[in-house]
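How it folds:
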Amino acid sequence: MDYVIEAGKLQPYTTVEEAVRGDVTELKLKIRCDEPIAPEKIVLKWQIPVTETYCYWGPNVGTCRHLAAAWGPRMTSSRLASGAPVHSIISANDENRLTIAVSDANTPLDITTGVVEDAATTECKVTFFTLQCAPLTEYEATVRLDFRKINWCDALRGVAEWWENECGYAPANVPELAKRPMNSLWYSYHQYLDRREIVEQCALSEPYGMKTVIIDDGWQTADKGGYSHCGDWQPLGLPDIKQTVKEIHETGMKIILWYSVPFIGIYSENYERFKDMTLYGLFDDTTYCLDPRYKVVRDYLIDIYKRALIEYDLDGFKLDFIDSFCPSDKSNIPDDRRDFRSIDDAVDALMTEVKDALTAIKPDIMIEFRQSYIGPAIRKFGNMLRVGDCPCDALQNRRAIIDLRLISGETAVHSDMLMWNREDTVESVALQLGSVLFGVPQISVRLHLIPEDHKRALKYYLDFWTAHRDVLLNGKLFAASPATTYSCAHAEKDGEAVWVSYEDPVVGFVADKTTAVNCSARDHLYLEGFAGKKFIVVNCMGEEISRGEVSSAVEKVSVPQGGMVFVS
């Protein structure tokens, strides 16, 4: 394959070695120089024919997946604390045409693809050192090009396995509780927390199958709104937090507590101590992002979490806003107090020390991270990856769960918290519940206030999820039509499948025992390849509607929105 390397002042010190193994090519980029040099952007680029090319995919690209011209290409950005270095070109029949992945998930880089108009080719680029990086004398990374004509989901699973097995990104252990439904209080209560209501919600949650409550922003401040009081991490908004945790545990629930890792507010007592160890200000300069390159900053953060774990008897941490650790205009200003030049290396050290400190106290500690910090590097430290905030948005939740699942191996992928209006229809509630079946559901409604039919649907769906959890989480997952954010998806394991129809009403045969969930706007599904099988249809609350036998190769079956058909 013909490729070009543009390395600027590092050009004399840069080489690329090519290794071809069938339809997989590896390009090993190496830099060796005698004196430290601050790297500028290094670009590795090549072109391939635009043949059977329909759309592209990246882990943080949202819903815009159509092709683009080379002068305005599609881009996947990655660094340790945001994104993942993988980018796919896919055919109209969901086959991989090229999946580009990079072995280095720490260094800031971009992967782009765009159509060259006068040649009908796709120009592919991997650009390294897209943000300010520390001077170096050595660097090495492998760019993996997978041209195999296989299902695009299998190509991404291959990347996840490559990162884990060959690139040094062994993921953190996932405790059993991280793969159980949870009640998060963020949408339901925001910062307005009360011990009695929290404990009441926990008592109500456990019968639904929820095993953990997440107490979010608000426990640490009596001043509601913003982050200007972050930094001291004292329970000012929930002063009886130890008693709260005790009573939560008495309900049978576990507790995860929220912390905004980088933020220190101007009204915190610690602000004066750390105000000259920050990267930049935000929210009208009422809050600053700490600079992890100072050991005193890292020690301060680690000590906060250790003390809270022991003093409050916590079961996990929601460590938020890690993607805010990024360079600023003043990052280049020398300071002898720092023990790291690279911000990404410092974040790696911080999160390694946090994980080691917490697991030394509680080996099965739960640690949640939220999009966009979801890549292979961050999976070393956390065992729960949650979809970014998308309140009431079934479409975004389903898309992001599938995106994360395909590159996250065994790490627990969680939905964004499900919330809905109490006056909404029960079918609309079920649409949200069905859209997150391939992840771990997080719920964020006030359980004592939702109407009875909502309660029945929630109970039915969480019971169904728990009963089929092994297939949903551990089965082989396939999603159709990535260009349309998935028309349907299914997981299959050991002869059992769960199929969710989002837009496409046709349910294909993949296993003798299949459950199909109708998350479309239609009131029917088509069973294809199930002739001779018996079926039972239930509505979104689990109430039986009909039963029968499939008598034709393709049979139309009435299934209400949010309902399910069980075929065996």
The mean pLDDT is 96.
